[in-house]
Amino acid sequence: MYRTHTCGELNISHAEQRVTLAGWVQRIRELSGMTFIDLRDRYGITQLVFTESGNAGLYREAGRLGREYVIQAEGVVCERSSKNPKIATGDIEIMAERFTILSSALTPPFTIEDDTDGGDELRMKYRYLDLRRNAVRRNLELRHRMAQEIRRYLNDEHFLEVETPVLIKSTPEGARDFVVPSRLNAGMFYALPQSPQTFKQILMVAGFDRYFQIVKCFRDEDLRADRQPEFTQIDCEMSFVTQDDVLQLFEGMIKHLFRTLRGVTFDKAFPRMSFDEAVNEYGADKPDLRFGMKIVEITASTKGNGFSVFDNAEYVGAICAPGCAAYTRKQTDELTAFVKRPQIGAQGLIYVKFNADGSMQSSVDKFFTSDQLKTWGKALNADTGDLLLIMAGQRKKTQRQLGDLRLEMGDRCGLRRKDVFAPLWVVDFPLFEWDEETQRFYAMHHPFTSPKPEDIPNFESHPERIRANAYDCVVNGVELGGGSIRIHNEQLQQTMFRTLGLTPEQAETQFGFLMHAFRYGAPPHGGIAFGFDRLAAMFAGLDSIRDVIAFPKNNAGRDVMIDSPSPIADEQLKELGLDRAKPCQRAITPDS
Fold first, then answer.
1. In the structure, what pLDDT confidence band is assigned to residue 591 with cuts at 50, 70 and 90?
2. Closest among 446, 491, 441 to 470, alpha carbons compared
3. Does the structure show a pLDDT above 50 at 250?
4. Which of 248-252, 354-358, 455-459, 582-586 is the least confident region?
């Protein structure tokens, strides 16, 4: 055996025992004829002691060791005279009697510590070293525990875990597909699945009743903190269920995960909020309910005073930042610069201060009287010491901008604590969204989402008024999962395709296999998919999903450790019947 114990399990009860450990040299300290080596493995750290007086030859040999050497060491467990309460093995140390170098190591390009000195790109290039750090290891251990708890919960609810294909057919709806050329079928391509949507519906037609899968999915889209080109979903589908059935069961799963992984208990049912309410009051369909600061429309009370920004605006809205009236000119200028960033795209920002001495101050007080400013304050329940922040423009765009500003103020006011969790369900989404550029409707979720039965008559006259039987699970402003009750009727599905601008021939080419399956008896069914990586990041208290993925891509979609994507040989291209294209010159930046 290479070891009798791990580096994290020895304690004072093992005193006087002879043990063998194996692991990596974390650090080396020299002190008056003694060498102390911290030996690390996945389970912890144990201190080894080499003394010049005890064994001079072994002491000199220990001096040859370097950081990250892999060694095997044998010795006797002794009680430490100077204990270290910060580690589980801090009461003991090993008086080393012999050791063997199993593998030497170059000096690592950054320190293998929780607070490392390595930048993101350097750590991703040497990801095998970064994974040795406790902080990263703990994230992957949490990810493992989460997967086990999900499987345990869903198994108890009679779900079957079924694998679905990775090489599938391209169906150009939603994000871009990653495509894979077929050697055996020249000129033909597979696509990597953006989700197993059609396959899980077919499993319901096949009578499997309750399906789930912790599955890898792929989307060719620009990256950000909560996106990777390949990501993991908890994909689920159920037959003979209503929306309430799905929400109740999977609310239970989320509560189970919070309880077992974070020790957080939710005693009440998650609140439900309509899409319209979320957008009108929070500026987003994924509201952060950890704090108030709701958006309030004040359009009617801002017109007719000669201020063209308001007079020409379709919509004027505001938020009230409590206790922020003391903001300086520099701070309000910073907020104006924030909303003018290209990612937000506002033209400017109006403020009204309700000062502690009872006075008011505003960037538009030459256009509006004190009574008018007080009217705005009353609409937002502003109190002494509060700050109104006002924006104007096209309704949907301005609401989104106010939503971004609201989150920024939540951060500035310390209202978005990571140890507080505010879950909810967002429901009653629009079934379609209109795109001005292409002059057509797109499915807000996907083309298999069922409309509300009472809204079906609007297909012919007002598709924009149709509400979807869809739902999102949101926690702290993060969309953790979403799903819908599906269309299981071929005629209704054909109506959906027609409204989306698909000809019968296009619908048959892309989705004919699903339509054919429906003809053989399709049960009412619905489901949901949760972002496994997003859940793991939330439980770990992190902002980026990259930190809970073993081998993530960078912001340009590259794996810098293995240097991928990369060119392939001309022989491979020839086998696939492909010509080599010129490299793309598009510059991808972290803000893309």
1. very low
2. 446
3. yes
4. 582-586
pTM of the model: 0.92
CA distance 398 to 345: 9
Secondary structure class of 363 (helix, strand, coil): coil
240: nearest Cα among 40, 485, 590: 485
Q: Alpha-carbon distance 518 to 195, whole Å? A: 20
> Is 334 inside a domain boundary?
yes
How confident is the model over 515-533, as a mean pLDDT?
Answer: 96
- Beta carbons of 295 and 280 less than 8 angstroms apart: yes
CB 137 within 8 A of CB 42: yes
- Domain assignment present for 145: yes
The answer on 300 and 357 residing in a single domain is yes
User: How confident is the model at residue 221, as a pLDDT?
Assistant: 86
DSSP annotation string for 485-539: EBP--HHHHHHHHHHTT--HHHHHHHHHHHHHHHTTT---EEEEEEEHHHHHHHH
Q: Please, which contacts does 438-446 make with residues 24 or more away whose CB atoms are closer than 8 Å? A: 440/500, 440/501, 441/499, 441/500, 441/501, 442/173, 442/500, 443/173, 443/496, 443/500, 444/468, 444/470, 445/470, 445/482, 445/484, 446/173, 446/174, 446/197, 446/484
Number of residues assigned to the chain: 592
Predicted confidence at residue 435, as pLDDT, reads: 86
Judge whether 114 lies within some domain: no
Angle at CA of residue 397, ends 392 and 403, nearest 5°: 85
The CB-side HSE value for 580 (13 A sphere, CA atoms) comes to: 11
| Contact in structure between 361 and 352 (CB atoms under 8 Å) | yes
Answer for the pair 113, 133: CB distance below 8 angstroms, yes or no. Answer: yes
CB neighbour list of residue 398: distance below 8 Å, 6 or more residues apart: 313, 315, 316, 317, 346, 391, 392
Sign of CA dihedral 103, 104, 105, 106: negative
Number of structural domains the chain divides into: 4
β pairing state of 272-274 and 423-427: parallel
User: Which residue, among 158, 165, 239, has the nearest Cα to 203 in the 3D structure?
Assistant: 239
- How large is the average pLDDT for residues 513-542? 96
Q: Do 92 and 162 lie in a common domain?
A: no
